[in-house]
Amino acid sequence: MELPNNAVTLDKFEKLIEKFITTDSKKEGGRLVHKKCGGTIRIGFVPLFYLGEDGSLDPGPDGFGIGKKRVPYCEKCDPPDGFNFSYARRIPILKQ
């Protein structure tokens, strides 16, 4: 799944996940594969943080922001770049 470059709402982020599963993936041999490259779709995690009024990421009271969100990824063309199937980059979320 291509992660957004700009801040998005939680609803928009959920729709991006749903779009990846419904339009960019297909079921093949009892598993989901990426239509573009044929790589297996796995589940990873990405850290979400609210975007503060000054444009910085709000770490929240515990320092972890909103928390981790499960996201699908293609193990062939877009594997996570962090530890334990996590993406190293943070995703800014607009407050609604």
Give a written overview of the molecule.
The protein has one helix at 10-23; strands at residues 25-28, 31-34, 41-51, 57-58, 67-74, 91-93. Helix content is 15%, strand content 33%. The model has no long low-confidence stretch (mean pLDDT 92). The strands form 2 sheets. Strands 3, 4, 5 and 6 form a 4-stranded mixed β-sheet that branches. It has a two-stranded antiparallel sheet with strand order 1-2. Strand 3 and strand 4 form a beta hairpin. With 96 residues, it is an alpha+beta fold. The radius of gyration is 14 Å and the shape is elongated. The chain contains 1 helix and 6 strands; from the N terminus they run H-E-E-E-E-E-E.
Number of helices: 1
Q: What's the total count of β strands? A: 6
**What is the helix/strand order?**
HEEEEEE
Radius of gyration in whole Å, from Cα? Answer: 14 Å
Distance between the termini: 24 Å
Descriptive tags:
alpha+beta; single chain; four-stranded mixed β-sheet; 1 helix; two-stranded antiparallel sheet; 96 residues
Produce a short descriptive summary.
By secondary structure, the protein is an alpha+beta fold.
Task: Write the SSE topology.
Layout: H1 10-23, E1 25-28, E2 31-34, E3 41-51, E4 57-58, E5 67-74, E6 91-93
Parallel strand pairs: 3-6
Antiparallel strand pairs: 1-2, 3-4, 3-5
